[in-house]
Design goal:
mainly alpha
């Protein structure tokens, strides 16, 4: 789809579409919904409760351990996730 066609579907100017695609503009949920509609997609912003601090800390610790494991596997050239290239 061309920028002109997308602009027409959203009822906005083509230069505005260029700004959106270059991420040079902050747009509203309404504009995001118009964009989704023009692309024949659904738009569902997700709001959810914040995680408790201890949960965030646990996640952070897991991420650190996971990255340490990944570094160790790179050094030993072994992977826990075998990839079949055939």
């Amino acid at each position: 789809m061309s920028q002109s066609e997308l602009a027409a579907r959203m009822h906005v100017s083509r230069p505005y579409i260029t700004k959106v695609l270059r991420q040079d503009v902050n747009f509203s949920f309404r504009t995001a919904a118009k964009l989704a509609n023009a692309l024949k997609m659904d738009f569902f912003p997700e709001l959810r409760p914040q995680e408790p601090a201890e949960s965030k800390n646990s996640r952070r610790q897991f991420q650190m351990l996971d990255s340490q494991l990944a570094r160790a596997q790179l050094l030993t050239k072994k992977s826990p996730y075998p990839i079949d290239m055939h």
